[in-house]
Amino acid sequence: MKKTVLLLLFVVNLMATVVITPNEVGLRPGIAGEIGASLTHKRGNTDKNEYHGNIYLSYDNNVSFVTWIAANFSYGESGGVLNENNGFIHLRHIHKLSQDSLAAELFIQDSEDRFKNIRRRVLEGAGLRKRLFDDKTYGRAYLGAGAFYEHISYTTDIDPTERNTRFNTYAAYTLKFAENARLSAAAYYQPKVNDLQDYNLVSSFSLEMMIIAKLYLKVQLSAQYDSQPPVDVLAYDVSQETVLVWKFGVQAKK
Predict the structure, then answer these.
(1) Do the beta carbons of residue 49 and residue 81 sit within 8 Å?
(2) Measured between alpha carbons, how far is residue 143 from residues 62, 130, 165, 186 in Å?
(3) 169, 162, 99, 91: which is closest to 134 by C-alpha?
(4) How far apart are CA 32 and CA 63, in angstroms?
(5) Where are the alpha helices (DSSP H) in the chain?
(6) Looking at the whole model, is its pTM more than 0.90?
(7) What is the structure's pLDDT at 148?
């Protein structure tokens, strides 16, 4: 088993994402969540500081709905020069419909990314999510479809302020294995409603393993592609994080 985990860690270091494991009603009754952080300080031949942090909190009434909020920030500098500064906060409400496998979703998100010239990006959206299967051996898989409105303001005068409506379709998967380890993956396709040539693609992968008690090691990777990025900004972004996470509340058994 240890060899399998080491192999998975090697593999995910070759990939890319940021992922939030799919949540649903009854998975973590009551209040639950996690807090994660990673710090890097180098001095001498390399002068570097990096700070990453995230928090996740959910409330599940164990009957009809679950509401969760997640926030993340990253800050870094090398040789006294800023090379990373971004963050987001996301709030989502999931309400179970008449069929156990079907749920309605409402969400809002606020984010910034100075190295993409984004001063602020605000999203408001809704959609439906279908659970495709839920199996102890093969895990859980979902398909989601909906739309959101976005308002983007930029840090430069070159790019105009954007107000768009986008379709939002995604697939998500998660598998708990070895009792205290989990892998998750997701992929999003978000074209503009009135211009399908303008779209965002996001793929994600994460692997987490318990170290001791409620302390976990989590590897998160993400790849993003913007078909029409801001001026002087690359169309793609790839990121990787390895963080220590402390979990609290009821933990999911699947």
Answers:
(1) no
(2) 22, 5, 20, 10
(3) 99
(4) 16
(5) 2-12
(6) no
(7) 97
